[in-house]
């Protein structure tokens, strides 16, 4: 029982460290910089989390560990196709009091270890296999020669010799600083890798670390979980370009019949094209340099926030029947604009934190304060959109405008499907994050943000199809017919009765529409037209 308890406790500690690190380290680039960072005590050790990223195996095999004092020489070597973690200018500084206690002539007066491990090997760190919950080797554990006193206990993986990787740096004499020799650790196996700097000597308490590590995948510096997004944004840029060209051709073909709503749709398509192109170039630059380009990222974040805001406002005004059952928004214009401005500010703040925040700037709790306002505002949009749709459908029922009623029914069904998909995807996202706290499924993580981008694109396609410019704009344009206020309370559920029972009594007029023209955007529906009956 003692063995099981010790092993279980240590596993919880190691997994706790990894989980804490995955939340605290909001990776802003493949270059992890350390500026006088402190070590945190855990059991009989002190540790500092140096970074964690998904890395693919090198396509070009080389010596697994290159060590050299000449960093320039190593930097000039070809790196294409190689995956590695490189230590650059790492300096450990202990306190002056700790240094003065040491013998000036002693060669090693304290050791700091850099431990690189794949997340699946987390149980190989510490003394769980030695019936102990210690992380550092003790004199009792060292008796059988399984570990050395003052070092972190590591059980080597028999299937992957030399891993987890240990790199030691020693303080000499009574020196306050220890410089880590330049190291370039090549990655020959795909996995999620964690880096820790650790020491076991309590006299080194108060030691600080400075310098940086560079993490690289075979195709560039993008972290493994972000690499597929560069290709995705490139494809989405092409998709928006195709949609923009088709919309432009339709726009030019029927430019005399354009209504105000078409200009709003055009603006959303243009913003989408710019957003996807900026994200692609931002990721491409990130992949080439290892750091996020501040200028491009700022523009991408801003365009993303603007596009999200304008898209939601477009859905809202369409749901209100703008240009269809009402020529203007009237007195609610200011409320709509206010909601849009507030949403833009909240979305911009969240995007800036996620994409421009430094590695240790924001914890999980701090991020929640920025996520909640956006989530609440999204809920406001959804409630307002569906309540407006309900009122618009009722008005169209009363007016017996069958073509417009059918149009809005299709729009309502499309929105309902998108909301159901969103709810289902949020549930999956929560399950994904809860079941993978250590990012072991990092190769699939890119589909989470990609889904929302794809859903927004498909919904824009639906709007473009339903409200495509045509030579018969009266089928959805505002015609100024009067509304009988006494009939405004008609139940939406009675729509089928009206459509079915009174069809023979409906007025019909102007069968001028060219149905073939509607097929450019997939409009196959037969437009019901009305005849004025005096």
TrEMBL record:
Give the transmembrane ranges. 12-31, 226-249, 261-281, 296-317, 329-346, 366-386, 407-426, 446-468
Determine if Transmembrane helix is one of this entry's keywords: yes
- Any idea what this protein is called? GOST seven transmembrane domain-containing protein
Query: Could you tell me which InterPro entries the record lists for this protein?
Result: GOST_TM, GPR107/GPR108-like
Q: Which GO terms describe its cellular component?
A: Golgi apparatus; membrane
Alphabetical keyword list: Membrane, Signal, Transmembrane, Transmembrane helix
What sequence ranges are listed for the domain GOST seven transmembrane?
228-473
Q: Which organism is it from?
A: Solanum bulbocastanum (Wild potato)
Q: How does it sit in the membrane?
A: Multi-pass membrane protein
Where can this protein be found? Membrane
Any Pfam family hit = GOST_TM
């Amino acid at each position: 029982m003692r063995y099981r308890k010790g092993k279980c406790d240590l596993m919880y500690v190691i997994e706790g460290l990894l989980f804490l690190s995955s939340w605290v380290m909001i990776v802003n680039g493949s270059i992890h910089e350390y500026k006088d960072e402190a070590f945190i005590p855990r059991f009989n050790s002190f540790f500092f989390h140096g970074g964690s990223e998904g890395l693919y195996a090198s396509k070009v095999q080389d010596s697994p560990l290159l060590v050299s004092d000449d960093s320039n020489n190593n930097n000039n070597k070809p790196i294409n196709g190689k995956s590695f973690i490189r230590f650059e200018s790492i300096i450990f500084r202990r306190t002056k009091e700790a240094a003065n206690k040491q013998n000036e002539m002693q060669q090693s007066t304290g050791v700091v270890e850099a431990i690189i491990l794949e997340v699946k090997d987390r149980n190989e760190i510490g003394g769980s296999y030695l019936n102990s919950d210690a992380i550092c080797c003790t004199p009792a554990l060292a008796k059988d020669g399984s570990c050395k006193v003052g070092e972190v206990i590591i059980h080597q993986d028999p299937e992957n010799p030399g891993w987890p990787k240990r790199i030691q740096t020693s303080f000499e004499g009574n020196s306050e600083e220890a410089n880590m020799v330049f190291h370039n650790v090549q990655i020959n196996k795909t996995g999620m890798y964690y880096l820790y700097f650790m020491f076991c000597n309590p006299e080194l308490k108060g030691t600080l670390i400075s310098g940086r590590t560079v993490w690289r995948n075979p195709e560039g510096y993008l972290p493994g979980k972000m690499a597929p997004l560069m290709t995705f944004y490139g494809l989405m840029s092409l998709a928006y370009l195709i949609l923009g060209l088709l919309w432009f051709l339709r726009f030019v073909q029927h430019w005399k019949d354009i209504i105000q709503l078409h200009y709003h749709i055009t603006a959303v398509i243009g913003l989408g094209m710019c957003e996807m192109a900026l994200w692609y170039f931002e990721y491409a630059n990130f992949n080439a340099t290892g750091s996020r380009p501040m200028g491009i990222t700022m523009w991408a974040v801003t365009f993303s926030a603007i596009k999200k805001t304008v898209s939601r406002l477009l859905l809202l005004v369409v749901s209100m029947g703008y240009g269809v059952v009402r020529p203007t928004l009237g007195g609610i214009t200011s409320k709509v604009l206010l909601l849009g401005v507030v949403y833009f500010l909240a979305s911009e703040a969240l995007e800036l934190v996620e994409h421009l925040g430094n590695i240790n700037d924001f914890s999980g709790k701090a991020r929640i304060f920025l996520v909640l306002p956006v989530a609440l505002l999204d809920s406001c949009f959804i409630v307002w959109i569906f309540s407006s749709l309900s009122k618009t459908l009722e008005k169209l029922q009363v007016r017996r405008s069958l073509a417009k009623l059918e149009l809005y029914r299709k729009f309502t069904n499309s929105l309902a499907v998108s909301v159901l998909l969103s709810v289902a995807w949020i549930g999956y996202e929560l399950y994904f994050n809860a079941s993978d706290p250590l990012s072991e499924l990092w190769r699939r993580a890119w589909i989470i943000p990609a889904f929302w981008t794809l859903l927004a694109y498909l919904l824009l396609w639906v709007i473009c199809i339903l409200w495509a410019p045509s030579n018969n704009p009266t089928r959805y344009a505002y015609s100024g017919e009067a509304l009988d206020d006494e009939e405004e309370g008609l139940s939406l559920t009675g729509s089928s009765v009206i459509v079915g029972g009174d069809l023979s009594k409906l007025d019909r007029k102007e069968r001028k529409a060219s149905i073939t023209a509607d097929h450019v955007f997939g409009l196959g529906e037969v437009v019901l037209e009305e005849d004025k009956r005096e």
